Amino acid sequence: MAKPETTFTTSVHNHLPPGRRAPYWMKNNNLYTSGIWDVWYSGAARDLWVEYKFTTMPKRADTLVDVTLSPLQVDWGMDRHEEGRDLAVIVGFKEGGIILLHREWEEPITQAEAIARLMSRKEIAQWIIDVTNEG
Top-level CATH class of 4-14+24-133? Predict the structure, then answer.
């Protein structure tokens, strides 16, 4: 049985168009290099690195959403950020997902903020297409 994070990532990818209209993407899983983010997307104009997380939406508005990255993921992401790369942490929930940019993953986010920013899987896929094809 697939992990919830993998199922969520696949459900986003299912909304990417087929063929040349979609960004090329590669799932990263390397036993010898820890910390590298989950997916690299390459579009007509830009690359994007995404770390996917999946968690349960808290019940109370003031409860924090767990978006914890491992120390190796933080280091890898910070190195890419300092190089000027485009990065995002996409946090998935049963209800949809949120996109964290510009090192937002370092700051706590409440359930109320997450709900206000909640996007469908289709909207997240479209955001990936838009980001990787912007000039």
Answer: alpha beta
